[in-house]
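Below is our example:

___
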Amino acid sequence: MRNSLINDNTYILKKQVSVYQQKINEKRAYGETNHPENRTSVNLDLISMNILELHWVDRTLVGKLEVITTPGFRKFGIVSTPGDSTANLLLQGLKVGVSSRGVGSVENKMGKYIVGNDYELICWDFVSDPSTPCAWVGKN
């Protein structure tokens, strides 16, 4: 996955990614399929991914994730969870994006949205239309 950044948002995201490393280290950097409305926590019943690694390449955040699937999907192709559904889409060759989910203030400065210093990263989720260019799941 890739997440390109611009201007002031880079500093804020770098700070939050540094904090998020603790979740990665504890194997609890979960994400869901689609951003939920008005929820600031990850629902354990809806987990579809776990982030394994995040690192910076210049001003681009790059990561490695695992799609969480059930034994029924792995053995028989039975889709019964959001992770199974996402894995099925990827196996069919469809593009799936990744987008960060967080809370905080946003300010419009000259047509660009700038995230406030109060931003708190919650997780990353699978999405159909990532807001960041090149934020697609792929083998790199």
Notes: Confidence is low (pLDDT under 50) at residues 1-7. The beta strands are 2-4, 30-32, 47-57, 60-67, 97-103, 106-109, 112-115, 120-127.
